[in-house]
Amino acid sequence: MGYCTAAREGHTMFNGANTSKCTGQKWVGVKKTFTDSRDSKKYNYVTIDGLDFMSQNLNYAGVDSTICISSSTATNCDEWGRLYSPSTAAKACPSGWRLPDSTELHDMLTNLYNLNKFYAFYGDGWNLMPYPTAAFTDTTGWHDEDLYGLNITPTGYEIAYLQNGMDPMRSRMADNMSVFYWTASGDYWGRGRPFGFYESTQYQSVRVIGMAIRCVR
User: Fold this and answer.
1) Cα separations (Å) of 79 from 53, 57, 132, 180?
2) Residue from 198, 153, 131, 122 nearest 57 by CA
3) What is the chain's mean pLDDT, rounded?
4) Total-model pTM
5) CA 177 to CA 87: how far, in whole Å?
6) Alpha-carbon torsion (97, 109, 152, 31), positive or negative
7) How many CB atoms lie within 10 A of CB 53?
8) How confident is residue 29, by pLDDT bands cut at 50, 70 and 90?
9) What is the pLDDT of residue 42?
10) I want to staple 182 with a disulfide (CB 3.0 to 4.6 A). Which of 36, 89, 146, 196 is the partner?
11) Which secondary-structure segment (H or E) carries 88?
């Protein structure tokens, strides 16, 4: 595709998976928009290999056990979306949309990376330090063009636990260093700071109570 320069501003090109537009000297995936009939919220999405993929985290408050995603730069449901509990995730997507299965997510993102390693599909808000790059699959281009329009932004996750075995607590984990999405099988797809926590005297009966959602159709 070559570089997006000032002379090519506004040009569109096929990138091998969908269409990108030269915008502000960066290649950006061309997005489409749909409206969630439940609350009239609008979402961007892109189409890759026949699969429509939301390029924003779901922000539907009409199910129980949701909280706003908080990042290092904002606490704003409209901008960052919400985290959902395992039980609400399965029924949170708009009509006609669904949770992706883990194979769909893994295969699509792996294929895009292999198609063009120079470009990224990551959005704003990432802080990968001080964790070593060895902890990640590959950080090449995480702050470059969002070539395919996927806009993968950090979400972190939320856990609940008993502090010292007595006091119920909840904590946000790795909120600007990782992204985790629920899948249809009840597990997750993730990138960034490795997912995990370790039970200790302070952290007992730990369970995951919140991850983000990207619906597909």
Assistant:
1) 17, 9, 28, 17
2) 153
3) 77
4) 0.79
5) 25
6) negative
7) 22
8) confident
9) 94
10) 89
11) helix 86-89
